Amino acid sequence: MDQNTFSTFGARLTIDLDALCDNWRSLRARLSRGQCAAVVKADAYGLGAAQVAPALYRAGCRHFFVAHLNEGIALRPVLPVDATLYILHGIHPGAEAECLHHRLVPVLNSVPQIEAWQALALAGNQPLPAVLQVDTGMARLGLDAEDFARWVPAGLIGLDLHFVMSHLVSAEALHSPFNRLQLDRFRAMLTHLPGVRASLANSSGIFLGADYHFDLVRPGAALYGVAPVAGQTNPMRQVIHLQAKVLQTRSIAAGTPVGYSHTWTASRPSRIATVAVGYADGYLRSLSNRGAARVDGVSLPVIGNVSMDTLIIDITALPEGRIREGDLLDLADPTHGVDAVAAHAGTIAYEILTSLGQRYARHYVGGEAG
Ligand SMILES: *Cc1c(COP(=O)(O)O)cnc(C)c1O
């Protein structure tokens, strides 16, 4: 993006596709067998599926997951034909032909979804590709134990079953006994489907060890730099760099209140900067009086309430004159990553990424080579 264009934006979101691909390769390197997919739902966690998915394809990824059928329809033309694109939500009633037409593979989550896909297979007189999801404890999507016992495997005629999958509830908690319980339940179900390949692990699940890897792992968050294991050093590279422009600076006297509802008041003479990012850019309002920007390695607190389009930073810690109108402050960078922002906001990094929105000047770097 040239400077001329950037001059019309308030902030820049740089997305490092080399770091993304390194993350994918390092996750794959943890597997002793099986393949490493990429979850690119929600526009690749807000970072741009049309850029992210082809970069991962060039790095060697051949299995991609989105949530909605329409996400799959949009992404299908962007990926070469030997990439498989799975729809986690399966198919809404009546959309089966559309799914088939676009060569998308549904994750079948319920008996009615299975039946509808089978009916289409029967009508076309050819088995149709599918993934079967079973519920091992999240109670969210997939056949429960009862439906499974009644339906599987006899009820799977007409399906070319690529994988049977389930999803972990708290894989980021390395020592949660629920991980093992889900693994045992999953294995018990798999004994009824001999020869069918299996998939259980999300990003965090990969770090639970080889027992959890099966034939395909489905990382999302870790690809985008989110820490996969709670309480441990993050082994992933940061993928985003968020920089926002200073709109104005001012010096205020001790006792001056700042921002909407005056939730912050200067306790000493202060220099402050108004920055062109707000909650409409995914810089959550819960970061009011809690977030931080960085300049020259110095952490500078967000003061007062975050507004829709602006936030205010206390820059008193920097030498006078260091920050001027038009300068860039870092709101997320390799040293202060998405997990740190999320911790300040009282949420998870997933929500920070997927909230970023469309107002940034987006700048993609790297991702060309294999
Ligand atoms: C979102 C999702 C993933 C990816 O999870 P991460 O924690 O982001 O790695 C994997 N599988 C399913 C079923 C999902 O919904």
The pLDDT mean sits at 96
Number of E strands: 19
Task: Report the bound ligands by name, code or SMILES.
Answer: pyridoxal-5'-phosphate
Percentage of β-strand residues: 15-25%
Identify the CATH class of the largest domain.
Alpha Beta
Total number of domains: 2
Structural class: alpha/beta
Describe the main β-sheet briefly: 8 strands, mixed
Write down the overall geometry: elongated
CATH architecture of the largest domain: Alpha-Beta Barrel
Which homologous superfamily in CATH is the superfamily of the largest domain? Answer: Alanine racemase
Total helical segments: 12
Taking pLDDT < 50 over at least 5 consecutive residues as the criterion, the unreliable ranges are none
CATH topological fold name of the largest domain: TIM Barrel
N/C terminus separation: 24 Å
Gyration radius, in Å: 24 Å
- Give the % helix: 25-40%
Write up what this structure looks like.
The chain has 370 residues and is α/β, with parallel strands linked by helices. Helix 2 packs across helix 4. The longest helix has 14 residues. Helix 6 links the parallel strand 5 and strand 6. Strands 1, 11, 14, 15, 16, 17, 18 and 19 form an eight-stranded mixed beta sheet that branches. A seven-stranded parallel beta sheet has the order 3-4-5-6-7-8-9. The mean pLDDT is 96. It has two domains: 194 residues, TIM Barrel; 126 residues, Lyase, Ornithine Decarboxylase, Chain A, domain 1, CATH 2.40.37.10. The chain starts with a helix and ends in a 5-residue tail after the last strand. It has twelve helices and 19 strands. The chain is elongated. It binds pyridoxal-5'-phosphate. The site of pyridoxal-5'-phosphate has 12 residues, from helix 10. The site of pyridoxal-5'-phosphate (PLP) has 12 residues, from helix 10.
